Amino acid sequence: MVQERRYGKPRTEAERRARHKRLFGTSKLPPRGTGLKLKHNPYPGVPRRLWAKLDRCVDKVMANPAFRRRYKARIKKIGAKSLAVAICRKTLKI
């Protein structure tokens, strides 16, 4: 789900929880302002400066209904996010 930035308007608790659940699989939110402390590299082989770009691309790909229809069998095998990352890495030439 890709949304336009709302400069000056932080996400609501419900929006934060939904996004956190989608990205990390848990509904336990860290306190506001603590930032994300990664224990691992979410994109092995991708420089940290490109993570945000790849995140945006993955969100766009996964939000596209045609993505799930077209790659239904592959999604069952390797998962939607993994496939979306692979598509974005190829598209962005990373």
Brief write-up:
The chain has helices spanning 13-24, 51-63, 65-70, 72-78, 80-92. It is mainly alpha-helical and 94 residues long.
Question: How would you characterize the overall build of this protein?
Answer:
This protein is an all-alpha fold and 94 residues long. 54% of the residues lie in helices and 0% in strands. It contains five helices and no strands. The two termini are 22 Å apart.
User: Quick one: overall form?
Assistant: globular
Instruction: Tell me the strand percentage band.
Output: under 5%
The assigned structural class equals mainly alpha
Uncertain runs are: none
Assembly type: single chain
Total helical segments: 5
Instruction: Tally the structural domains.
Output: 2
Q: How many strands?
A: 0
Q: Kindly state the mean pLDDT as a whole number?
A: 85
Key traits:
mainly alpha
Topology:
Elements: H1 13-24, H2 51-63, H3 65-70, H4 72-78, H5 80-92
